[in-house]
Predict the structure.
Amino acid sequence: MTRLLLAWRAGDETALARLTPLVHRELQRIARGCMRGERARDSFQATALVHEAYLRLVDTQHVNWQNRAHFLAMAARLMRRILVDFARARRYQKRGGDAIQVSFADALSVPDKAEDLVALDEALSALAGFDERRSRVVELRFFGGLSVEETAAVLRISPETVMRDWKLARTWLRRELRR
Amino acid sequence: MTPERWRQVSRIYHDALARGSGERAAFLREACQGDEALRRDVESLIAQPASVENFLGQPALAMASTLVEDPAGPTLTGQTLGPYHLLELLGIGGMGEVYRARDTRLGRDVAIKVLPRLFSADPDRLARFEREARLLASLNHPHIGAIYGVEEAAGLNALVLELVEGPTIAERLRGGRLPVAEAMRMACQIAEALEAAHERGVVHRDLKPQNVKVKPDGTVKVLDFGLAKGTMAAAADGDGSPGSPAAIDGTREGVILGTASYMSPEQSRGRAVDKRTDIWAFGCVFYEMLTGRAAFAGETLSDTLAAVLKEEPDWPALPADTPPGVRSVLRRCLKKDPVDRLHDIADARIELQEAIAEPAAATPTGPPRGAADRWARVIPWVVAAGSVAALLLVVPQATRRSGSPVASVTRLDLDLPAGVELVTVYPPAMVLSADGTRVAFVGVLRGLRQLYTRRLDQFETVPIRGTENANAVFISPDGRALGFITADLALKKVSLADSLVTTIGHDAEFSAGAAWGPDDRITFVRAGTLWQVPASGGPAKQLTTLDSGKRELLHLWPSVIAEGRVILFASITGTSRGASHIEALSLATGQRRVILESGTFPLYVSTGHLVFFHDGALLGAPFDADRLEVTGPVVRVLENLAVGTTMDAPLAALSNAGALMYAPGDAGTTRLVWVSRQGVEQAITETPRRYQYPRLAPDGRRTVVATAGDLWIQDNARATFTRLTSEQTVGNAFPVWTPDGSRVLFRTSNGMSWISADGSGQPNAIAGAVPGDIPCSVAPDGDTLAFMRQNAQTSRDVYVLSLTGRSGPRPVVNTSAYEGGPQFSPNGHWMAYASDESGQMQVYVRPFPGPDRRWQLSSQGGTQPLWNRNGSEIFYRMGNKMMVVDVSAGVDRLLSPPRQLFDQRYVFQNISAANYDVSPDGQRFVMIKDEAGSGRLNVVLNWTEELKRLVPAR
């Protein structure tokens, strides 16, 4: 694993391709652990898990900050895919495949149903259609659990911009999802 | 939304937020420079509540565990089940999750299907399932995905299956059709698999391209054999004789969403499934392999279903090099009537083997088109036994399946699940969704009345939780929710997606109809007039008042047209049948206008017709919805409909998509029978009618019974049957004898009346009675009548009044619970009744007139109490069971618990007033036995085509 990461840092794109399924499996394991309720639902714990995955996968001394950020970005995207796939499967199983209406409860701050997550994913993809950067902010922060600083590093923007992006994106998403 | 536009939006949004809230509006107007859409866009973003701060506040992983609602089961990947190590979730099917797993003993990979928890918890289901699995395991065929075994561990049950690598036929077909030779080879293997299974009495029931895998070496494996639940039960229970038809399990568990495209005609009708169903599906799959297209498909569900029932597949689409023998096999597999269909898959297999063995020498052209083809497109008409409607026998020629919408009349009969009766008492008892894909009706099973529903592409009719005690049903315009009215007059709705029940209002009359308009307001009847309430809840508004000058008694059967601007309804002006006319109410002006002088139950059809009920039949007339006028002659369009037993309205429903549903005329017909305490039956009446509330005279020589709104007396010795209430009134029911046998009291549409038992004279109204009162029992003093009265606050209550008018009505038991069915003891000192104060209907007894104490007699539920004439026993019913309690030592000192006399199904219907009677010697009961007809509903898709033909609209 470490060799692959080093090769990647050295610019080997194919190494990245070979790395992705490994990361994928690792993240799946984490995600399933979370779904089984094995870990606390504390938000700090959650992001720590992703970092833990990173640490488990690599010898930290050999990877610099930029690649780490890149890794985290990839992890966020993978995590999004893992969770949404799972949510889709759950939704199908519950609903028998029928299309359903999505609703966010007013008091809800976090989607807590499979349907909501799928709808969020779709809205996020729609947002990426005309604002890639803000969509990535949401992906990194919500699915990847990255902090504002980490997000800023990945996207090479200032933390203040991250904050404003985060707010606008969330406002737009919330409006779209409540329609 | 384009990136440029979005940049504008976000820039203005941030600038607006930078300003104080007072300045924002002005700033927005200026910044948007007249672009109203832009301004609204930004404004709606700004208007999002502050709680958006918390939105997505926690990372997704933090709530990952809440994605899973079943506490038992997030995915089990990584866990161990017996000797199997679960490696990866492969997919989720209707029956559970499927994992790839490693058999640690044998070192091979298998597929493990973990059954849903619900499934595992029921020992009966589990035992049956294990029997099924064992039978399947014995199949052992090279083309059947093998079952290795059943595993149970850690509270979970799972099937261990052969793991088959490779794509399914469905996936292969994504690239287009298969070459004929390859398709034949694969079809032959499928046929072999089916043959082996049928020989052992196993039916697949859900064969489709998604269920058949093709291994890299070309071998075909049919999966999920017989795992579609229910079919196997009969085969396993019986002798497993091949081809024995199996009944569909009517329970709710494991409802399977069948893809309508592969469902056989008899399956879509809810009929029993047997090996010929597999043969049909085989034909569909084979056809699809050869042509790359489904044999039956439509744009909508209705179209697909109609295609299955009515259309022939596009035969010319078969490739030119398809051998003629194969074409013939396909045709015979896809015969709509299972009687005409290929009976044995072995015949298909033999034909295929021969075709494969022969060199490619197929005739280059398909069969000649001509009369034979046209004939092939005419549907073999399946006529349900006992049904009529002669006009439906006309079969217009089918349109060729070339993408044009199906427009001809198709009939479909739905069998109700075992044990469920259609409630025939109060229309509206059934509904069809506007697009014709769903039906719902009020059914009663073992005394419990609730809503049942079925999507026309699913196999089963299922009860809807939370709709208990529903008496009437109607549907929302989008078909996503049902409205219903319960016995306590509550107006409720249930959303079909999640079974969420909400109460909208109260005091809605369930016997009068309701309608859900496209403006999302529900029109219903309260205290005899029309009211309206928003479906989302809120205050109700009265729409009409009764004009006493015109002698109006009731407004009924609202029907919404013109997008909610106009409401059609029936206005009743007298108690004689037929004293009803149809009016239209314009909501904007509040004005009413008579449309038809006689008629009831108006239904508007978007084809420009008004359909209504009169004199036992459905009639239609062309109708201009804008001018609110009938524009042509009235024509009878459907005869012999079942009619509600106490309301003069048909058991029928029409959807805007043009489908008609009705209960055939013999629905609800019954016979009277004697039943001894041991359950031995003896017929009393030969003619089936809709009997209700039989009551033996005190001397036992006569029986009074209600039927179709009138009372009749039967002389038991001479078996004569004469009408007692001579006036053509509606709603006469619930007869009660006076102790001296000289008079019969009964419920009328105005309240209560009595009539002399010899039929002489006119009925006399009972003073103090109001509409809705139901008489139950007269005390030995001949003066005190115990009856049931409905109250808004206290549901049903028990009252008494003096027949001679010495005292007015006064309550005996009037808590907020439902109390009813009061019966005086032969000495008049006690009263038995039923109440649901405990949460379940139970039978109680209390001293009369007081003190206010009571004793519970039934232990596990019961209703409809009756005394034995010697006063020593009380009978009551619990579902199909007739129970007796010995009270000879006094009601407060029961010597023994209730005993069961017999357990047989007889009509139950009204909840607490006894729908039976006991003979004077206490040895026999008069029970109502229903005829078979109440188990069926007729659905006619696209009935409006027939309507247009019969009633030309100008």
Notes: Confidence is low (pLDDT under 50) at residues 8-16, 38-46, 58-65, 93-112 of chain A. Chain A has eight helices and no strands. The helical segments of chain A are 2-9, 13-35, 43-57, 65-95, 114-130, 132-143, 148-155, 159-177. Chain A touches chain B through 61 residues (CB under 8 Å).
